[in-house]
Design brief:
alpha/beta, TIM Barrel, 2 domains, 8-stranded mixed beta sheet, 10 helices, 18 strands, 24% strand, Orn_de-COase, De-COase2_N, pyridoxal phosphate
C-alpha cells in the first residue's frame, strides 16, 4: 500500500468494507504498457473497473476501450472517448444491442459464430469484425473457459464469409487467460492467427488486425514479469509468425491496468473455532465472495493480506465472508496464515483489489451494501 492510500485511510477513516484506488497508479500502468508495446493500441477492458474517474483519466491519456455491453459503451463515450476508440468485444450480443451500438457510432465488433456474424451483418452493415479463436489458457491463474472463441479453422471460414455479408473482415482475436504470468503464452495463438491470415490472403481477403486480448497480470503474492518482458516476447512472436508483414495489434488490459492501484480495507467481524478440539481458526471478515471478492472462487486469486499485527506469530486460518451463504468462504483448501494476535474489530488490508471487485459487488446480497469505493 502506498503512502497516498495510507494517508487517506488514516485521515478519512471510512467505514468498512471499502476500496481505495490511487488514480496515479492507473496512469503509471497505462504509460508503462504504452512504452512497452508502442505499436499496439490499448483498449482498456472496461469490465475490470468501470468507475467514471478511471474511464475519464484513460480517455484523456488516449486510451481506447473494450466494452462488453451498451452500458459500458455509453460510459466510455461519457468519459470522452469517441466511437472510433471503442470496440464491442463481447461475442454474445442481443441484436438490439448491436443495433444500438451501431447507432452510437461503433464500427468494431467481435464474434465467434456464424449466428453472431449474421446478426452483426443484419443491423451493423459495413462494420469491421474480428473473430475470436480458442486458446488453452495454460499458465493463467484465472483461465478462461470454452465459452468464448471457436477453433481456428472455423474462424477462417467465418471470416471468409464476412465480405459476402457486407462486412469488413478485419482480424482475429484471442485471450490467453487472465493473470497470465507466462510471457510466451501468446506465441501459439499468434501462430494460429498467422495461419488464418495466410489462408484468407490466398482467397483474396486481407486481414489487418490481431487483437492480443488481455492477460497482463498484477502482482499478488507471486512476482510477475514486467510490461517490457511481455512486450519483447510478443514482438518476437509477431515477427516470427508474420515476418515483415506485421498486422495492426491491439491489447485489452484490465487487471494489469487497475489491479495494483486499489486496496480494500475490511474489518474482522468474528474469530471462532468449530469445536473444543479444533485449533483451526475461522476468521470472518465484513467482505467476502458476494461483496467483491468473487475471484477467490476455487481460490484462484490469492490476495496479499496485511494487518497491524504482521510480524507476530501466525497460524493458518480459514477466511470467510459475512453472508448467510455457505459458499462465502475465501480460503479453506489452502488456509491463510494470519497473526495469532488478530482480534475482532481489527482492520485488515486486502491488496491488489482494484480490478473485478466493485463490479462483482453490484447487488446488495443479504442486504450488505455494494462495495463503497474512493478514487483519489
Amino acid at each position: 500500500m502506498n503512502t497516498k492510500i495510507a494517508s487517506f485511510l488514516e485521515e478519512r477513516r471510512p467505514e468498512t468494507p471499502c476500496l481505495v484506488l490511487d488514480l496515479d497508479v492507473v496512469a503509471g500502468n497505462y504509460q508503462a504498457l504504452a512504452e512497452a508495446m508502442p505499436d499496439s493500441r490499448i483498449f482498456y477492458a472496461v469490465k475490470a473497473n468501470p468507475a467514471p474517474q478511471i474511464l475519464s483519466l484513460l480517455a484523456a491519456m488516449g486510451s481506447c476501450f473494450d466494452t462488453a455491453s451498451v452500458v459500458e459503451i455509453r460510459d466510455a463515450l461519457a468519459a470522452g472517448a469517441t466511437a472510433d476508440r471503442i470496440s464491442f468485444g463481447n461475442t454474445i450480443k442481443k441484436r438490439v444491442d448491436i443495433a444500438t451500438a451501431y447507432a452510437l457510432g461503433i464500427r468494431l465488433f467481435a464474434f465467434d459464430s456464424e449466428a453472431e456474424l449474421r446478426k452483426i451483418a443484419e443491423v451493423a452493415p459495413g462494420a469491421r469484425v474480428f473473430c475470436r479463436i480458442l486458446t488453452s489458457g495454460e499458465g493463467a491463474e484465472w483461465p478462461l473457459s470454452r465459452k468464448f472463441g471457436c477453433e481456428p479453422c472455423m474462424a477462417r471460414d467465418l471470416l471468409a464469409m464476412a465480405p459476402g455479408l457486407g462486412l469488413d473482415a478485419y482480424g482475429v482475436s484471442f485471450h490467453v487467460g487472465s493473470q497470465q504470468r507466462d510471457t510466451g503464452a501468446w506465441d501459439k495463438a499468434l501462430e494460429s492467427a498467422a495461419g488464418i491470415f495466410r489462408d484468407l490472403a490466398a482467397q483474396g481477403i486481407e486481414l489487418k488486425m490481431v487483437n492480443l486480448g488481455g492477460g497482463f497480470p498484477t502482482k499478488y503474492l507471486k512476482e510477475v514479469p514486467t510490461p517490457e518482458a511481455y512486450g519483447r516476447a510478443i514482438d518476437a512472436s509477431l515477427r516470427q509468425h508474420f515476418g515483415n508483414r506485421l498486422p495492426e495489434t491491439i491489447i485489452e488490459p484490465g487487471r494489469g491496468m487497475v489491479g495494483n492501484a486499489g486496496v480494500i480495507q475490511s474489518e474482522v467481524v468474528l474469530i471462532s473455532n468449530k469445536s473444543a478440539n479444533d485449533n483451526t481458526r475461522w476468521v470472518y471478515l465484513d467482505i467476502g465472495k458476494f461483496g467483491g471478492l468473487a475471484e477467490t472462487m476455487d481460490e484462484a486469486i490469492r490476495y496479499p493480506i496485511t494487518t497491524i499485527h504482521d510480524g507476530d506469530a501466525a497460524e493458518p486460518a480459514i477466511l470467510a465472508g459475512p453472508t448467510c451463504d455457505s459458499a462465502d468462504v475465501l480460503y479453506e483448501k489452502n488456509a491463510y496464515p494470519m497473526p495469532v494476535s488478530l482480534a475482532i474489530g481489527d482492520k485488515v488490508l486486502i491488496h491488489g483489489t482494484g480490478a473485478y471487485t466493485t463490479t462483482y459487488s453490484a447487488v446488495a446480497f443479504n442486504g450488505f451494501a455494494p462495495l463503497q469505493a474512493y478514487y483519489i
